[in-house]
Amino acid sequence: MKKVFFFVLFTFLGYLLHSQSLIGAWETKILVDSDHIKADVKIVVVFTKNHHVASAFDAKTGAFVATFGGSWSMNENNLSQTIEFDSENPDRIGTTKSSKIKFENGELQMESDNLTLKRIDDGSPGALSGAWLMSGRKRNGTFQTRDTKKPRKTMKILSGTRFQWIAYNTETKQFMGTGGGTYTTIDGKYTENIEFFSKDNSRIGASLEFDFEIKDDDWHHSGFSSKGAPLYEVWSKRKSKK
């Protein structure tokens, strides 16, 4: 069943990107009725300038289904996607797929599956829209840096209203986990509202508030984790594929 989701998600992206501006977040829902599950599944796709993520989760319970993403580029109506992480099909990691896309009547349509994608936002109003890699954190009072060029990555992708983090390794093709939902940035406070969490469904519905500021183009992020532990992270913005 999850492989079917990924076929839909991957192809859907191909039909998504012919709009005048694809930066931001998009969503649709599909009814899945199989031997394994019967549920409304929400598909959310976030595009930043060079990177994207697509995820599927139960629209009612938030139960995680699947995610994949990486870098993308367009040439006229041809979309190229280089897969950097894939929770269900690691064999695709490192491969590039080219797809024809189509956009009609002000809607993003996938004709063969009768799907229509609706825009959630255009990259605003959140102050942190973009793709970020964790480049440092404090542990037991000691600051530790992380080389973002190494294969072990933690990436966070944000549109204007939605966020998602993904932990993965491009060398081993291992997927470690992900979570996401909506967020706001108001008066120096970054607030996450968790809609799905691959490792622990009990986190779904939680709202976490952090202090944030941009220093030398890096995002400094501090507060307490969902487990109540002190947290201080630094994220560096991705400008191109690394």
Walk me through the structure.
With 242 residues, the chain is mainly beta. Helix content is 6%, strand content 57%. The strands form two sheets. It has an eight-stranded antiparallel sheet, with helices on one face. The longest helix is centred in the N-terminal third of the chain and has 15 residues, at 2-16. The protein starts with a helix and ends in a 5-residue tail after the last strand. The relative contact order is 0.17.
Care to give the gist of this entry?
The chain has 242 residues and is mainly β. The protein has one helix and 17 strands. A hairpin with a 2-residue loop joins strand 15 (207-215) and strand 16 (218-224).
> How many beta strands in the DSSP annotation?
17
Low-confidence stretches: none
Strand order of the largest sheet: 6-5-4-3-2-1-8-7
Instruction: Quickly give the structural class.
Output: mainly beta
State the end-to-end CA separation: 32 Å
The percent range for strand residues is over 45%
- Could you spell the SSE succession in H and E letters? HEEEEEEEEEEEEEEEEE
The averaged pLDDT comes out at: 86
Number of helices: 1
Shape summary = globular
